[in-house]
Amino acid sequence: MLNEILARRVLIVLGKGGVGKSTLSAAIAKLATLLGARALIMECDARAPLAATFGVAPSFVPAQVAENLALMTLDGRAALEEYLRLVVPGRMLLKAVFASRLYQFFVQAAPGLRELMMLGKIYYEAGLDGAKPPARNIIVVDAPASGQAMSLLKMPTAALSTFGDSIVGKEARNISRMMRDRRNCAIVQVTTADSLSISETIETHAQLSSIHLAPAAVLFNRMPPCEFDAGDISAMTNRRGSNLRKKDLEHLAELAKSELSRAAQARKALARIRAETEGPVIEIAEHGGLSGIALIDRIAGELARNLGTRPAARAAHRR
């Protein structure tokens, strides 16, 4: 299933805050590069956590952060101004527009238009307008948290009804067509076993399906490993000849029981996600003690090993 998702031109990754959405967005992009693609991560968070992770300044211009991997911060105002540079003739006129009080008021009063232009930037960077060959094989969008992401994804439809056949309306139509084109675009949700995250994922999945944007898959992040069972715990506590005191063994047993319970809860949550979404669910293992680039690389490497796809063959497919 992940092979099919990686064949798309644009991946939009969304999920509740704190589920590891940014890390997985970067890991998916890194995975694409391991398979021979050129990838661009677009992060929508103005705080730019991925820029900080990769040690680059937040920028609307893509910055190279690894081999075949670039990163940019998707800023609504910058996207709007870039779009105006394309449609407003003459540098002097454009300069006058940017300097005018009316424009400043307009930018502040029309946040929806900025959101639309953010999606438009994705559309143009992906080369879906046909104006020029795409600079990247795949774009991974680290979308805002689910609630904000839903507003963002609904914006093209709202703009269509507001702007009609105007220039902005045509832009909205192109963006809407991109998001619903299953050959070029996929939405991927991220969740963890946390009950609030599970509930929000299911609710968001239903909302997306109702507007014909059903996610291609759900990434179940931080799946705890479980390499022992209740029998192993019992055998450990009844061990004879150990150098550990009985009190120490009992403490270890309690820790083990807690981990066993956590793993059981995660399996129940996983089963619920599978039942409620009725779509592919991809498990991402928990990696305690890792963070930042080390965690991104570990997840990307594990996904690459699990794919069973030879990098050379994958690269040839993308050319």
Outline the structure in words:
This protein has 319 residues and is of the alpha/beta class. Helices cover 57% and strands 15% of the residues. It is built from 14 helices and eight strands. It has helices at 2-6, 21-34, 49-54, 76-87, 91-99, 101-109, 111-125, 146-163, 167-180, 195-210, 230-237, 246-277, 292-307, 311-318, and strands at residues 10-15, 39-43, 63-66, 69-73, 138-145, 185-191, 217-223, 281-285. An eight-stranded mixed β-sheet has the order 3-4-2-5-1-6-7-8, with helices on both faces. Helix 2 crosses helix 13 (292-307), helix 7 (111-125) packs across helix 9 (167-180) and helix 10 packs parallel to helix 12. The longest helix has 32 residues, at 246-277. The radius of gyration is 23 Å and the shape is elongated. The chain starts with a helix and ends with a helix. Residues 310-319 have low confidence and may be disordered.
| Extended strand count | 8
Gross morphology is elongated
How is the main sheet built? 8 strands, mixed
Assembly context of the chains: single chain
- Strand residue content: 5-15%
The value of Rg in angstroms is 23 Å
**How are the strands ordered across the major sheet?**
3-4-2-5-1-6-7-8
Low-confidence runs: 310-319
Mean pLDDT: 84
Structural class: alpha/beta
Number of helices: 14
Q: Considering DSSP H and I runs of 4 or more, what fraction of the residues is helical?
A: 55-70%
Q: Strand-and-helix sequence, N→C?
A: HEHEHEEHHHHEHHEHEHHEHH
Distance between the termini: 21 Å
